[in-house]
Amino acid sequence: MVDISICDGIITAITPPGQAEGETLLDGSGLFVSSGWIDLHVHAVPELHPYGDEIDEIGVKQGVTALVDAGSCGADRIGDFYTRSLEAATQVFALLNISRIGLERTDELSQLEWIDRTKVLEAAAAYPGFIVGLKARISQSVVKDSGIQPLKLARTLSEETGLPLMVHIGSAPPAVSGVLELLQRGDVITHYLNGKPNNLFEEDGAPLQGLLDAVARGVHLDVGHGTASFSFRVAEQAKAAGIALNTISTDIYRGNRLNGPVYSMSNLLTKFLYLGYSLEEAIRAVTTSAAEWLGKPELARIRVGQQANLTLFALQAGEKQLTDSEGDVRAAHHYIEAKGVYVNGSLITG
Ligand code: ZN
Ligand code: ZN
């Protein structure tokens, strides 16, 4: 138990309880506090359908103080999104879709001419710090007849911009083994616990050799739960095989926030507690681990002299039904509930 003193948004002291000076902003008795949660895969452009939502609805109102929009925008829209993001209470980063049209369509890599090298390079140069990587969705419904070619182009663009790739995996073709081969240290596989036929595990639960090799090269694994990409069965296989949990992200947008199976970051954290991960491991996956991938470790620090960037949450006892993307339902006996955030010098409670 500690008291955290904050003045003008800066942490001025961390002291034993009862020793802080000043007025009480919030009595956090019984609550946990962590550095602000970071969601590495969301869709935060409200006018896009189906993959869109309001920034703060999936950010600070959910306990998430920083989020990464995962490729909603390509070069055509990224400037507008950057301008919009400055008005939100939530800190926003973006992965630039290698397709200039982004998610204006859901087959954005089916035409190779939409991968416009010059526009990608211009956008990456125009928004440094905001654009933290490139996004390529490499699954059948997105690439159609383009096969693995969009990923090869993405690899070249990654080298030219110096930005890592986040690659979405899903149904074949292309086969996931061919996708894995093209990924390098610092790249991200999102949807790594998906339960589709082209997933990262054999039928008997053994991880593909290509996955083990990718992990050994330093490829980062991200949950990207979404509507269709999280399976309890596969998550149990991953845990049993000792595949490390890197980041828990939601792939949240309006539909799966309101109707499930995502609902909220708290709901996902609860799923990982249910799977047997400790509270510390689950919270690390949305704080330290995400901040390190972003190259911004300060986002995961609670230290005197730093900006206060905090999430308050409770661990409640009680039954809660959890549903994965396959319709598999499990019952948890403890659940996490976000209670509020402290960002930009003010407390926001949900
Ligand atoms: Zn995806
Ligand atoms: Zn997504």
Structure characterization notes:
It is a single chain. By secondary structure, this protein is of the alpha/beta class. The protein has a single domain (35-349), classed as Alpha-Beta Barrel (TIM Barrel), CATH 3.20.20.140. Helices cover 26% and strands 25% of the residues. The protein has twelve helices and 13 strands. It has helices spanning 55-58, 78-85, 117-126, 140-143, 149-161, 176-181, 209-217, 232-240, 254-258, 265-274, 279-284, 288-294; strands spanning 3-7, 10-15, 32-35, 37-42, 64-70, 91-97, 131-138, 165-169, 188-190, 220-222, 310-323, 329-343, 346-349. The strands form three sheets. Strands 4-5-6-7-8-9-10 form a seven-stranded parallel beta sheet, with helices on both faces. It has a four-stranded antiparallel beta sheet with strand order 3-11-12-13, with helices on one face. It has a two-stranded antiparallel ribbon with strand order 1-2. Strand 12 (329-343) and strand 13 (346-349) form a beta hairpin. The longest helix is centred in the middle third of the chain and has 13 residues, at 149-161. It is globular. The model has no long low-confidence stretch (mean pLDDT 97). Bound molecules: zinc ion (ZN) (2 copies). One zinc ion is lined by residues 41, 43, 70, 226, 251.
